[in-house]
Specification:
Number of helices: 8
Structural class: alpha/beta
Shape: globular
Strand order of the largest sheet: 3-4-2-1-5-6
CATH class: Alpha Beta
CATH architecture: 3-Layer(aba) Sandwich
CATH topology: Undecaprenyl pyrophosphate synthetase
Number of domains: 1
Helix content: 40-55%
CATH superfamily: Decaprenyl diphosphate synthase-like
Oligomer: single chain
Strand content: 5-15%
Bound molecules: 3-methylbut-3-enyl trihydrogen diphosphate, magnesium ion
Number of strands: 6
Order of helices and strands: HEHHEHEHEHHEEH
Length: about 250
C-alpha cells in the first residue's frame, strides 16, 4: 500500500506521520539533547547561541511528540556532571528554564502539557528553581503529555539515594536485606510513577549514556543520530519512531 502511494505521489509528498503505525507509538521517549555547542561552533557562533537554539528544538519536539500521542517525554537538560563547565556557561544554562517558560508556557498550557522535573533541586539557583516550580504547579492538573526535564540529574546519584532509602527501611525493620526486590529500587527512583522509556534518542553522534537513566533504560530501544540537537526536526523524530517500530522487543524471551 505504502509502495503504491509512493509510486503515485513520489516519496517526498508522503508525509512521514502517515507511514507510522499509530497502534505502536512508544509510550515514553527519553532524549539526550546533545550537540548544542558543536552546532554553534560549526556556524561560527558562541556556544550560548547553540543552547538558545536548542531551546527552540525543545518546543518543536514536544509538539511533535504530542502529535504522535506519546504519553511521556523526558529530556536530559543538565547533568550532575555539567557543573564542571565554565561558570559563565552554567549560569547561562540556568537562565534558560525561565526564558523557555516565559515564552512557551502559554502554548504548552493550551496543549495541556504537564511539566515535571527529575533531578536534585538543592543545587539549583533560586531563580531557576522558582521558574521550574512555578511551571510544575501551573501545569499539575493538565492531562496531556508529561514533559519531564532532567535537570541536575545523574543516574548514579539517583541510585545511591534509592539504596540509602532502602537501607533506612532495613534499619527501621520494615524489610530484611533478603527481601529487597527490583520494585523497592523502582519506588525510590525519581521515576517511581513513570514507565521505563521505550525509546532513547541521542543526538550529535555520541554513542554513550552519560549517566542518564541507567536503571530505567535496561530494555529500551536506542536510536542515535549525528544531527545536532538545535537542528533536530519533527521529521528526524518521526524517523526515530519509525525505526523503533521496525524493532522486535524480546526482553530476553523469544
Ligand atoms: C547539550 O549540548 C546541552 C547540555 C549538555 C547542557 P552540549 O552543550 O553538550 O553541546 P556539545 O556536546 O558541546 O556540542
Ligand atoms: C549529556 O551531554 C548531558 C545532557 C545532554 C544534558 P554531555 O555533553 O554533558 O555528555 P558528555 O560529556 O559528552 O558525555
Ligand atoms: Mg555534549
Amino acid at each position: 500500500m505504502l509502495q503504491r502511494l509512493r509510486a503515485l505521489f513520489g516519496k517526498a509528498s508522503v508525509k512521514p506521520l502517515q507511514m507510522l503505525d499509530t497502534d505502536n507509538i512508544p509510550q515514553h521517549i527519553a532524549i539526550i539533547m546533545d550537540g548544542n555547542g558543536r552546532w554553534a561552533k560549526s556556524r561560527g557562533l558562541p556556544r550560548m547561541a547553540g543552547h538558545h537554539s536548542g531551546m527552540k528544538a525543545v518546543k518543536r519536539i514536544t509538539m511533535a511528540a504530542d502529535r504522535l500521542g506519546v504519553k511521556y517525554l523526558t529530556l536530559y537538560a543538565f547533568s550532575t556532571e555539567n557543573w564542571k563547565r565554565p561558570k559563565a556557561e552554567v549560569e547561562f544554562l540556568m537562565k534558560l528554564p525561565q526564558e523557555f517558560l516565559a515564552s512557551e508556557l502559554k502554548d504548552l498550557m493550551e496543549k495541556r502539557v504537564q511539566i515535571r522535573m527529575m533531578g536534585y533541586k538543592g543545587d539549583l539557583p533560586d531563580h531557576t528553581l522558582k521558574a521550574v516550580e512555578d511551571a510544575i504547579a501551573k501545569t499539575a492538573n493538565n492531562d496531556g503529555i508529561v514533559l519531564t526535564f532532567a535537570l541536575n540529574y545523574g543516574s548514579r546519584k539517583e541510585m545511591i539515594e534509592a539504596v540509602r532509602s532502602i537501607g533506612q527501611d532495613v534499619q527501621d525493620g520494615k524489610l530484611s536485606p533478603g527481601q529487597i526486590e527490583e520494585s523497592h529500587m523502582q519506588q525510590y527512583l525519581l521515576t517511581a510513577d513513570v514507565p521505563d522509556p521505550d525509546l532513547l534518542i541521542r543526538t550529535s553522534g555520541e554513542l554513550r549514556l552519560s549517566n542518564f537513566m541507567l536503571w530505567q533504560l535496561a530494555y529500551s530501544e536506542m536510536w542515535f543520530t549525528d544531527v545536532y540537537w538545535p537542528e533536530f526536526t519533527e521529521e528526524h523524530f518521526n524517523e526515530a519512531v519509525r525505526e523503533y517500530q521496525r524493532r522486535a522487543r524480546r526482553y530476553g524471551g523469544l
